[in-house]
Amino acid sequence: MGLLSQGEPLSYEETKNYAEYLKQEGINQFINVWNKHLNRKSDEMLWGDEIEGMLLKFDHNSREVKLLLKATESLSKLQNTKDSMHFCEHCEFMLESTPRFPFDGNIRNVHNVDTNSHYMLITTFPLIGCKGFTYPNYLPRPETSISHSIMFPDEAICQSHPRFTLMQSNARKRREDNINIQVPIYKDEQTPSPFIDPDLGEDHPRCREDHIYMDSFGIAAGNCCLQATFQTPSLTEARFLYDQLLPLCPIMLALSAGSPVWKGYLADTDSRWNVFVDGVDDRTPQERELEPLSEDRFVIPNSRCGCNNSYLSEEGSTYNDIPLLINERYYQQMLTAGIDRLMAQHIAHLFIRDPIVVYKDKLIQDDLNDMDHFLNIQSTNWQTLRLKPPSMDSRDGWRVEFRPMEIQITDFENAAYVIFVWMLSKVILAKRTTFVIPMSQVHKNMSECQKRGAAVNSKFYFQCKQENKRKDLVESIHDEGFDCLDKELLTIDEIINGKKEGFVGVAGLLRSYVDGLPDMDSETRSRLYGYIELVGDRASGRIPTTAQWMRSRILAHPEYKKDSVVTNSVCYDLLNSITEVQRSSGSQYPGVGTACKVKPNT
């Protein structure tokens, strides 16, 4: 959701003028947080999840479905309960729910996660960006709208908070150009070759053969994801957990893939991530190296969304093998203030970005008690993981936010994925389990994991050597370099379910964890095993990912013409079937397998 401060927003020109001052204040605030909470220990391992969903309008007579622009109105009607809270998100068709209070470490809390979310649980609306995709129907106004989009109207941006409109407006002004999203199209028997996106035409400078074109921040931010945040006992534990979860991000993204359709076309990808990366790319022409540096300080090689670029713990630092662009002045300031090299370079890397949204009322802050300037920068660096420092009021401890997963269509699946990562976090901290691999390999895995069918067809870098071999491995890397690492690429099935050569797989580690828990009642054990089984079955291919299931439904639809086009009626039938799954027990839905029963939504 990001930082939702209240107040009068500044214009882009004012925000630009204050950028350096705000970033300096943000660094000062982080140093104060560091000094206050560096030695904080023994925090309880609290955790919580965030589920995003969409509002849809079905017309059963015409067999059409549109995005319903009623989030602000719906938010006022949705009652926060003793267990959950609801929030707005970037678009007027999105809502988010979180637990009212974080869960504690009691394993029986798993019974409270699998609950009704109240929204349509899909990652991407298949017709987003098509003509008339919203209800009420609003037309894009490329000459006068804030994003100049030819496919996304301003009215589809969330109306309940100025942050969202201003973010899209200021990102467009920074970039001095429209967003440029290019998704490879799935080539079926009757797909034109080459495929030319009809929104552009072959003579348009942005036209890429065999690619689906989209041009709006809102299209990228209008996708739903599944996130989880874990509080750790101390900063040391947070850094270790951060490093070990980082190589798992591409794996869990592939396993949760749920976005095979964009702008009414089947894509040759299964996941949303690169759409998000390109869709929020606000770099100026100078930062993109289209013009010589004059006003800007850096040529920045990538968007403010993407894969993380460095490990934070001493154990992980050996594997930092890619260049890291940092703000040198802030880096030196943090070193002088006593912050260690790894943390200082991590923060200095985040602070190569400028703030996008600033409020006049928040310009002057008490750096000993406020954190808004720091959070402003941190919350608009959208990476697969986020290290979250304690709040100034000491309410929260050091936390790690796990961000790559896509939303699943049933509550059971979402609970399974969140609890899978939660249990893995507990295993990592309890057993000091290590998964770190060279950062360059994590980046290669992030590219691979988004391909069509990656969950079963792709292979990934992964480290199987565990525990007592870790120290010897690090010493070997110092002596021999990364050539001493395992060269064999693994399938996700091998990573999750294990290999014959002694590696039991991530699922095996979790089963051992469950078996070792004292006083475990049979109902809780069965539920945990069901969650592990779901993820394991997705990894083995025994049951399809959400993206695979959606794609198969489209390909088998009698009105699909094998031309990659997903018509409104095909989309209607697909989403109507998802609605039926969410309303029923899910007994006919292969996405959860025969051993797992989905609780009915009520």
Label this structure with key terms.
602 residues; alpha+beta; 6-stranded antiparallel sheet; 3-stranded mixed sheet; 20 helices; 17 strands; globular; disordered C terminus
List the helices and strands and how they pair.
Blueprint (H helix, E strand, L loop, with lengths): L11 H26 L9 E8 L1 E4 L4 E5 L2 H7 L6 E5 L5 E6 L34 E2 L26 H14 L5 E4 L26 E4 L2 H5 L4 E6 L3 H11 L3 H7 L5 E2 L2 E2 L6 H7 L25 E2 L7 H4 L10 H9 L4 H10 L21 H7 L3 E2 L1 E4 L10 E4 L8 H21 L7 H10 L5 H4 L1 E2 L9 H11 L9 E2 H6 L7 H11 L6 H19 L5 H10 L12 H16 L19
Parallel strand pairs: 3-6, 12-13
Antiparallel strand pairs: 1-5, 1-9, 2-3, 4-5, 7-8, 9-15, 10-11, 14-15, 16-17
Helix pairs in contact: 1-11, 6-13, 9-10, 12-17, 12-18, 17-18
Describe this protein's structure.
The structure is a single chain. The chain is α+β, with helices and mostly antiparallel strands and 602 residues long. The protein is 36% helix and 11% strand. The chain contains 20 helices and 17 strands. The protein has a six-stranded antiparallel β-sheet with strand order 4-5-1-9-15-14, with helices on one face. The protein is globular. The protein starts with 11 loop residues before the first helix and ends in a 19-residue tail after the last helix.
